[in-house]
Amino acid sequence: MKKIIVIGGGPAGMMAAIAAADGGTGVILLEKNEKLGKKLFITGKGRCNVTNAAELETLFANVVSNPKFLFSAFYQFDNRAVMRFLESAGCKLKVERGERVFPVSDHSSDVIGALTRELQRRGVDVRLHTRAGGLLVRNGARETAAVISVGKGPSETRSDDPCVSDGISGTEGTAGISGTGAKICGVLLEDGRRLEGDAVILATGGCSYAATGSTGDGYGLAVRTGHRLMECFPSLVPLAAEERWCGDLMGLSLRNVTVRLLAKSRLLYEGFGEMLFTHFGVSGPLILSASSYYAQELRRRRKKGAKADAALGRRSGTVAGKESGTAGGKQPEAAAGRRPGAALPDCRLLIDLKPALSLEQLDRRILRDFEESKNKQFKNALNGLFPARLIPVMIALSGIDPEKRVNEITREERAAFAGLVKALPLTVAGTRDFDEAIITKGGVDVRDVNPSTMESRKLPGLYFAGEVLDLDALTGGFNLQIAWSTGYLAGESAAERVADA
Ligand SMILES: Cc1cc2nc3c(=O)[nH]c(=O)nc-3n(C[C@H](O)[C@H](O)[C@H](O)COP(=O)(O)OP(=O)(O)OC[C@H]3O[C@@H](n4cnc5c(N)ncnc54)[C@H](O)[C@@H]3O)c2cc1C
Hints:
This protein is of the alpha+beta class. The chain has helices at residues 11-22, 38-42, 56-61, 71-76, 79-88, 108-121, 154-157, 217-224, 245-248, 285-312, 332-335, 359-372, 391-398, 411-422, 478-500, and strands at 3-7, 26-30, 51-52, 63-65, 93-96, 100-103, 125-127, 132-139, 142-147, 182-189, 194-196, 199-202, 229-235, 239-241, 253-263, 266-277, 281-283, 318-319, 322-323, 347-352, 424-431, 439-444, 462-464, 472-473. The radius of gyration is 26 Å and the shape is elongated.
C-alpha cells in the first residue's frame, strides 16, 4: 500500500493525516512528544480558540504575513468546514465575542480527543516518541539523506535555542537533494531507522513555546532540501519598554484604551481594547497585536538592510547593532531565525487613555473636574480620570507640581496634560523572547511552495503545513485556522499525488 508520512502531531499534522487517510492511502504520523497536540492543549488558555466564525474576508484580513498564499487553503477547508468537522467528531462548539469559536466544554482536551478519535477511525499509524531527523531523497538510483539530527539520544540532541535546530551540521549542502529528477522517498528517524514513504508532509510548527515540541526542526529539514527560509521573529508577544515606571504599574490592566504603534511618525498599528502593564513593559490583547506589526517592521528593515548590504557587497545582517546571519559558526540556515528582543530604535507606543473624547472635549472635562475641586492640590484632583495606581505616574510625567492647587494650573499646563492623557508615550525596547510568543513570524518561504497544493516547488512529494511556513495571523482563532486549512490541503493533495503515481 502507498504510504504518506506526516511529521508533527500538532493541529496541522493531525489534520493533514486525517485528510490524507481520507484519500485512501496508508498514513504514518510521527510525533516526537509523548502525546499529540501538546501546544494545542495550552491554546486559548486551555480553552482552545479553534477558529473564528467571521466571513472569509475577515479571515484574510487577520492574516499578517502572506494572506494571498492562503487563498486555496482557506477556500478548500474554511472555518465552517473546521466547525462541521469538529462537531461531527463529537466536539460541540460555541461562538463567543469577536466570533471566536471554542469547545462548549471550554476544554482544549476535547478538541485533541476529537482529532485523536478521527485519526484512529481512519487507521492512521500514530507513532509517539518518534522524532524525524532527516528526509530521504531519491534521484535516479541515488538516495541522499537531508539530515538535521540522527543517531543521538533525545537528551543529547536537545537544544536550548528554539530556532536553531540542533545538529544541523550539513556539510553536504543541498547538492543532489533537490533539482531535476529528485523526489522524496521517506524519512530518517532520529535513531537511524529509515521509513519509506511516497510523500512526506512537514508539519513541525514554528519555534515559539519550544517546550511543547516546536523547536524549529522543520526549518533545518526544509533548508537541507533546498528551500529558502524567512528569518524568524517572536510574534503575538509582549513588548519590553524602556520606561521603568511600567514596572511600578505591574498587573494594572487598562480597558477601552487605544494603542498606536509608530516608527518615527509612520503608523504601524492602531487598535482599541485592553492592555496590561508588566514588570518589563506591556502585554495584553492590544499589545500582542501591536507586536505582530512591530515584528513585521523589524523584518522589513532587515530585508532592506540586506539589500543595501548586497548592493554594497557587504555581509548582511545587523539590527540595532546586533549581528545575525551566520552567527556562532552555525550554518546560515540555522542561524537565520531568532531575533528575540531585537529592537527598532525609533518605535514608540502611544496610549490614548480617553479615546472616546477629543482633545478639546478632554480639556473641557479636566477643566470641569478642576473647577469641582478648586482648592484641592493637583495630586488629589485626578481620581475621576484614572485608576488610582496610574495617578502618580501621570503626575510625574506631566511635570506639574503635585502640590499645586488646581486653580493655579495654567491653561498651557492643562492643555499639555490633556495631550499626555491622549498620547501616553512608551519607548519600545524590543519584543520578549520566543518562549513567550504565541506565534513565530517567518519560516519556510512560501515562494518555494505551491499554494494550490502545499507541495514544495523544489522537491516533489514534499508538502508543508502549519506554522513551519512563513504564515502568521492575529489572535482570535486565525492561527489555528491556518493550521487546519493548510494541513487539510497538504493531506488531500499528497493523497491525490500518491494515488495518481
Ligand atoms: C500559549 C499559546 C496559545 C495559543 N492560543 C491559540 C488560540 O487560542 N487560537 C489560535 O488560533 N492559535 C493559538 N495559538 C497558536 C497555535 O497554537 C499555533 O498556530 C498552532 O499550534 C500551529 O500548529 P502546527 O501544527 O503548525 O504546529 P505545532 O502545534 O507547533 O505542532 C508541531 C508538532 O510537531 C512536532 N515536531 C516538531 N519537530 C518534530 C520532529 N522532528 N519529529 C516529530 N515531531 C516533531 C512537535 O512536537 C509538535 O507537536 C497559541 C499558541 C500558544 C503558544
